[in-house]
Amino acid sequence: PEVPREDAESDWSADSWSDYGSRDKPGTTLGRTVPDGNVLFPDIFHTDHLLFYERFRAYQDYILADCKASEVKRFIAEYLEKVLEPSGWQAIWRTDVFEVLVGVVDVNFQALKAVVQLSEPFLCESQDSSFTLECMQELLELKEHQILLQELWVVYDESGEFDQTALAIEHIRFFYRCIWRTWDEEEEDEFDYFVRCVEPRLRLHYDILENRVPSGLVVDYQNLLSQCEELYEKFLNVRNSISSNDSDSEAENVSMVEGLKLYDKVEHLKQKLKLIENPLLRYVFGYQKYGSLQAKGMRPTGAKVIHVVPWTMTASLLHLLARDKLRPESCEDVEIQFHRDPLAAVNACYEGDRVIICPGHYFVDGVFSIADSVELEGYGLPDDVVIEKQGKGDNFFDCTGANIKISNLKLVQHDAVEGILNVHHGKTTLENCVLQCETTGITVRTSAELLMRNSDLYGAKGAGVEIYPGSGCTLLHNGIHHCKEGILVKNFLDEDYEVPKITMVNNMIHNNEGYGVVLVRPAIPSEMKDASAQETKVGWVDSVKIEENEFQDFLMMWLLCMTVGDILFPALGNTQPTQAGDETACAEGSRQELPGCVTDELELYKRAETSEQTENNSEIANVLGATSAKKSQTHKKRLSELGFTEADDNLMSQEMFVSVEGNQFKWNGKGSFGIFFF
């Protein structure tokens, strides 16, 4: 008996391709678009508007499946053989210099090329008039009439017969333009190519299209990609020159050294690209986008100006301003200017200027780029002076001035990609402010410094405060709550960066979804080797009683570390078993001797809570200090391997300056402190 066709071709049935057009259904399901230019080309299929899930499904289910990197071209060829019409359709052949209408007479599936001939009448548009009919025929003969499929745009056909052909070519074109890298074939074959490369790159592409990635990070990614492609091409040339020459000459040895250097550079750039492609680690990779911010310096006249921004100016308000802020004895020679918009006032500032914003709710469509040392002050309580972001944009405040002060303001952020305030350079002081965030909160970049005092920050979908290597951050008497993470310390992204200097005193960090404080750093290879030894060191925890509120923190941190290669959490390594046991025994003894008085129970609860907060502060300080010392040891070992037996004391004493006292951590989803390895 004959095998039913639907059983033999179940994976490629018309129903499975219903979203992409079907030969069994009359009429096309795709749109059409008119080609640009002066030549009257026929309309083409409109296929470059596909959604993320449409491309995702096509690559995962129909094109690549679970193929390895070395199998990509074969899987694509097999896919095209099933869906592509081998002949009978027209297309526009597009290059950087010309466009010409061709007819397809055959397809070389293994080479991913179409066999074409010029259509009649001859239609061609080019940057100059040199591409005549004879010239194009000669060019096709040189190419043996075979051109890459991704260079073809299928001419529109209402019948629906060529829908799958148009979509298949669009998928191949998009893959080789946006997904495939020239070095992918050398990736290790034990990994699923779709999971490892296609999915993260596809997600990044659509995140960029939907403005979910900062423009500066996009530029950095494109620059890194160009650099990597250029270096990889040089590496291939050097490698090919070595492989074609069997002599053991000095020139070949030099080429081998050069090839190794190029290989290391390429691998370094590939790792940076993977960081940006990974949505979880994308913002771990810092980028510098403040180069366009130029300080104005002092005015040519040397004068300083006070800029006043009134929502509405009344006689009583003017009297209060003159009494409190514009006293003659302090502002005798200072010019006063009035503005209706806070952004216009800041843009008019020079070095040493001051901006006073009167009570009101100000809506601003733009970015505050502060490159000079200026003071931005609200006149009144923060809830009375509100600056709210309107319109989409990367960020709200960019600070690069040497000494910037912002006080008594409430900042409200909407439709943003970056954090509410970025400190790129210099020192920024934030005092008595309220920050209602949208994405991340405050970012303190490398070589920048932040002093945040008596302020309230909430609502960040990322971290409330992000602290980069080589920065300084002082947090005094602040509230950081209802964020994804409270404070994120990014450490050791590159061995050339100094560790951050952190001071946290009397802050209230509560109700965050993740940890109160989390440290992000790469796993050091030596830690992987010492994992079993570290497991032995903390084995005592099993025999020590852990309070319920402490157990959740410990368990979450332990599981986090186990998932990155059995690297156990080092935070408890500084605690001795006997001390922990004694403290627990003392606590239990205290409970047994307590009378049944509610007042005494409340007093005990307060003491236990105070003790817990003290332990949390000590734990954070100890772990940050320990990881800093670990970096110093690693750096010293690397210098020793390079032949440097003596290192500069200043270089080797790059220990993280940490002062963590009096902070309270309450109701954070994963606990007070955690470490994320990558």
User: Strand count, sense and closure of the main sheet?
Assistant: 10 strands, parallel
Unreliable stretches (pLDDT < 50, length at least 5) are 1-25, 528-599, 642-655
> How large is the count of helical segments?
16
Radius of gyration: 32 Å
Report the principal-axis shape.
globular
- Average pLDDT, all residues: 77
As an assembly, this protein is single chain
Distance between the termini: 58 Å
Structural class computed from helices and strand pairing: alpha/beta
Q: How are the strands of the largest sheet arranged?
A: 10-9-11-14-17-20-23-26-29-32
User: What amount of the residues lies in strands?
Assistant: 15-25%
Q: How much helicity do the residues have?
A: 25-40%
Provide an overview of this structure.
This protein is an alpha/beta fold and 678 residues long. Among the domains are: 31-195, no CATH class; 216-286; 306-325 and 333-521. It has 16 helices and 34 strands. Strands 10-9-11-14-17-20-23-26-29-32 form a 10-stranded parallel beta sheet. The protein has an 8-stranded parallel beta sheet with strand order 12-15-18-21-24-27-30-33. A hairpin with a 4-residue loop joins strand 4 and strand 5. The longest helix has 44 residues, at 598-641. The protein starts with a helix and ends with a strand.
